[in-house]
């Protein structure tokens, strides 16, 4: 499918945009006419992606989403370059695997700070800018685990449940300001965050990836892990006029995983 210009004239800030889902969202949004502010802490990767997209269409800013000062600085830089912000994708997040009763407090707090507080600060900081621009959209990244449970990701699941709650409250409070707020809830997606080698540096990367692929062939009705660009397409839908009468909703993109377990 060719360019349709669904985001012509829009300025959208995307967190966690140096790689994975955020990178694909940045690439897709730029291809649809948006000027994109790529925010991350992975400077080299973020600057490289922004450079590929071009200075007229993209800008990289360093942003630790858990820090208020970073948010203020990122917004100021974006406005200085592009004049305004009328879209936000709160995509940045981290994942750790641990049994709940063995999870150190510091690990739980770190995940909460990035996944939950980061989304809160993004909404609080950017919503006034979106309102000043005449309205727009906020898309928060929750998770399959934001709607159900999963063993060994207690801190992550708690933070992603919180993102769904934030999405609903923000939608209620910001509707009168012309801002729609929705959440994407990905299931298993092939990104660096879920790379088995990143989770266990001593693991055989190819063997681990094949084991994970085999697991999801059994768990997911569509028989595979998702692709980051498939999540990006949902974020695009929620950021353009195609979803003009939708707000306050979590949208699952998981190959049917949440639907249940097939016996055959």
What do these coordinates show?
The chain has 8 helices and 9 strands. The chain has 264 residues and is α/β, with parallel strands linked by helices. The strands form 2 sheets. A 7-stranded parallel beta sheet has the order 3-2-1-4-5-6-9, sandwiched between helices. The radius of gyration is 18 Å and the shape is globular. The model has no long low-confidence stretch (mean pLDDT 94).
Task: Briefly say what this structure is.
Helices cover 45% and strands 16% of the residues. It is α/β, with parallel strands linked by helices and 264 residues long.
Mind sketching the topology for me?
Blueprint lengths: L10 E5 L4 H12 L3 E6 L2 H11 L4 E5 L5 H15 L4 E4 L14 H28 L3 E6 L12 H21 L4 E8 L2 E2 L5 H4 L5 H15 L6 E2 H12 L10 E4 L11
Parallel strand pairs: 1-2, 1-4, 2-3, 4-5, 5-6, 6-9, 7-8
Report strand %: 15-25%
Summed up, the helix count is 8
Largest sheet: 7 strands, parallel
Rounded to an integer, what's the Rg over CA atoms?
Answer: 18 Å
Question: How would the global form be characterised?
Answer: globular
From the helix content, strand content and strand pairing, which structural class follows?
alpha/beta
Distance separating the two termini: 35 Å
What would the keywords be for this entry?
globular; about 260 residues; about 15% strand; alpha/beta; seven-stranded parallel beta sheet
């Amino acid at each position: 499918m060719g360019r349709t210009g669904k985001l012509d004239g829009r300025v959208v800030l995307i967190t966690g945009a140096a790689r994975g889902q955020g990178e694909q969202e940045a690439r897709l949004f730029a291809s649809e006419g948006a000027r994109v502010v790529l925010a991350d802490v992975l400077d080299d990767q973020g600057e490289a992606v922004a450079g590929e997209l071009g200075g007229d269409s993209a800008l990289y800013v360093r942003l630790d989403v858990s820090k208020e000062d970073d948010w203020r600085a990122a917004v100021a830089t974006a406005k200085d370059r592009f004049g305004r912000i009328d879209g936000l994708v709160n995509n940045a997040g981290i994942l750790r695997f641990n049994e709940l009763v063995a999870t150190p407090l510091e690990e739980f707090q770190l995940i909460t700070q990035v996944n939950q507080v980061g989304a809160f600060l993004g909404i609080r900081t950017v919503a006034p800018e979106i309102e000043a621009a005449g309205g727009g959209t906020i898309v928060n990244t929750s998770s399959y685990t934001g709607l159900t449970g999963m063993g060994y990701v207690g801190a992550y699941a708690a933070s992603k449940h919180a993102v769904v709650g934030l999405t609903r409250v923000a939608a209620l409070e910001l509707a009168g300001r012309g801002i729609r707020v929705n959440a994407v809830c990905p299931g298993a997606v092939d990104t660096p965050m879920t790379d088995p080698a990143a989770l266990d540096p001593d693991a055989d990367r190819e063997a681990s990836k094949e084991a994970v692929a085999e697991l999801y062939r059994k768990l997911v009705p569509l028989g595979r892990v998702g692709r980051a660009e498939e999540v990006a397409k949902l974020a695009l839908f929620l950021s353009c006029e195609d979803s003009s009468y939708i707000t306050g909703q979590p949208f699952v993109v998981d190959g049917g995983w949440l639907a249940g377990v097939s016996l055959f």
